[in-house]
Amino acid sequence: MKIIIAPDSFKGALTAQEAADAIETGIHKALPEAECIKVPMADGGEGTVRSLVDATGGRMVTVPVTGPLGQEVEAGYGILGDGKTAVIEMAAASGIQFVDENTKNPLVTTTYGTGQLLEHALDHGAHEVIIGLGGSATNDGGAGMARALGVRFLDADGKELPYGGGALGRLATIDATGLDPRLESARIRLASDVTNPLTGPQGASAVFGPQKGADEAMVRTLDSCLAHYAAVIREQLGRDVEDTAGAGAAGGLGAGFLAFTHAEMKSGVQIVVETTGLTSKSMGADYCFTGEGGIDFQTKFGKTPMGTAQAVKAASPSCKVVALAGSVGDGIDQLREVGIDAVFGISPGAVSLQEAIDHTAPNLTRVAENIARLIS
Ligand SMILES: O=C(O)[C@H](O)CO
């Protein structure tokens, strides 16, 4: 019997690799002969770098870069097992965790450090880069990222603008002549956590600005700065990035990548499926065990268990897909439509969140073993 084990991480408890190990232990207690193939998964959100590094036998690299407030921070990214693909989560360099209640200020925060990570990856031989967008402290449209890669953003007097989305209203000229030429040929795939446009009521500033410290007046300022930025990009670079789905991700970093590189925007789980080779590994599979910390109807909008189920069933239509979750929310019946045949909560009873987190591995093992006993 061939069983694919392809969970996401269980946030705060286990990496995807650790979750897969715990599930495998349970299955082997009941089905010692089963051929288990472990594929740590992710959907582009937090944990994606770790899962892809683990799934491909890659390695982590840590680099000092400029944090969102201009401070030095240590940021990690992954080089995958093929040695030529880098995976960067923008939040590692420019994330919300680097600011606090007193310092968060999306008028001034910058994605410069994300650009430095990308440059470091190119310097170390990456030809393909996967960038996870989301969890940012920034609202600068990716101008900081582009600046780190050689673009100059000038005001009407020809002076370089300071960091931050609040300065973009004064943008007069984009000088992209110094843009790193390696970006011409690098394949960049953006794994976005949202599909919002750059500006407007559904845009980066209106929807995500408040969580980064913007009040109503600041949201209006930031939104008009990004609209002006998009207009200058349109005029001077001939690219229209304002309304593209995902352009508003990570404070408009999506738009920055679309404006200054040949990046393609894709669903995060799709990128992970492609990179791990999940579909080909699933040929002839009888069962698939997937899972995530929390599962509910939203899982069908592109989260890991859904993307996993679709990839596995594309390879083996008769494969049964079982999802294990720390918490099971409303509407899980809807998940059958997207290929998840059954969902099991792993908690043994009413316990505190901390207890549930602490016991995630043995709980996964116990439930996987019991399901495997039914199968056997
Ligand atoms: O970083 C952000 O702005 C949100 O996570 C949406 O991408």
UniProtKB/TrEMBL annotation:
Superkingdom of origin: Bacteria
Presence of keyword Kinase: yes
GO molecular function: glycerate kinase activity
InterPro entries recorded: Glyc_kinase_flavodox-like_fold, Glycerate_kinase, Glycerate_kinase_RE-like, Glycerate_kinase_sf
Keyword Translocase belongs to the record: no
BP GO annotations: organic acid phosphorylation
Record-linked SUPFAM superfamilies: Glycerate kinase I
One Pfam match: Gly_kinase
Keywords attached to this entry: Kinase, Transferase
Protein family per UniProt: Belongs to the glycerate kinase type-1 family.
NCBIfam families (alphabetical): glycerate kinase (TIGR00045)
Protein name: Glycerate 2-kinase
